[in-house]
Amino acid sequence: MNNKTLLENLRSIPDYPQKGVLFRDVTTLFKNPECLKIMEDELYEMYKDKGITKIVGIESRGFVMSSALAIKLHAGVVLCRKPGKLPAETVQESYSKEYGTDTIEIHSDSITEDDVVLLHDDLLATGGTMRAAYNLVSKFHPKKIYVNFLIELVSEQLNGRDKFDKDTEISTLMCL
C-alpha cells in the first residue's frame, strides 16, 4: 500500500472541480506503463485467492483497472454506468449526492447468485457512488461482494468507509 512510484506519479490539482478541493487525478497513473503494472500486480495479489468471477467497474475510471485485473483473474467485467448508456435491460439504483440525486445501472443479466463480485473504482471519498453500486449488486444475491479503490481519501469530513457495514471487505492501494 502507498507504493512510492504510484504516489510520485499521482497528479494533484488544487481547486478542481471547485475551490478548496484537491483533485487526485489517476489518469497520470494510467498513462504510465510502470504504474499500470504496479497497480495490476498489487490488485492481483489482493484478490488472486478470493474466487472472483465478476469485476464491476464503476464509470468511468473504474473501467481501466477492472478490465486489466479481470484478464489476470480470468473473471468477467460488468460495466456500472449512468442511465441511458447500456443498450439492454438494466437494473438501477439511485442515491443522494451533495446537490441532489444520481442513478447508476448495470445490465439485468450481468450477475448471478453463483458469482463472487469485486466492485472497483478509482477513489473513495464520501462513498455514495460505491454504496449505491454495492446495493445494486446486492439485488442479485451473489455469494460474496468485495470493494476496492485505488485511492482512499482519509478525512473526518469525508468518512467514505462509514457508508458500509463493518463486515464489508474494503481495500485500497493508497490512503491519502
Explain what this protein looks like in three dimensions.
The protein has about 180 residues and is an alpha/beta fold. It is about 25% helix and about 35% strand. The chain has five helices and nine strands; from the N terminus they run H-E-E-H-H-E-H-E-E-E-E-H-E-E. It has helices spanning about 5-10, 25-30, 35-45, 60-75, 130-140, and strands at about 10-15, 20-25, 55-60, 75-80, 90-95, 100-105, 115-125, 145-150, 170-175. Strands 4-3-7-8-9 form a five-stranded parallel beta sheet, sandwiched between helices. A two-stranded antiparallel ribbon has the order 1-2. Strands 5-6 form a two-stranded antiparallel ribbon. A hairpin with a 7-residue loop joins strand 1 (about 10-15) and strand 2. Helix 3 packs across helix 4 (about 60-75). The longest helix has 15 residues, at about 35-45. The mean pLDDT is about 95.
Brief descriptors of the model:
alpha/beta; 5-stranded parallel sheet; 5 helices
SSE topology:
Blueprint: H1 4-9, E1 11-14, E2 22-25, H2 27-30, H3 33-47, E3 54-58, H4 62-73, E4 76-80, E5 90-97, E6 100-107, E7 116-124, H5 128-138, E8 144-152, E9 169-175
Parallel strand pairs: 3-4, 3-7, 7-8, 8-9
Antiparallel strand pairs: 1-2, 5-6
Helix pairs in contact: 3-4
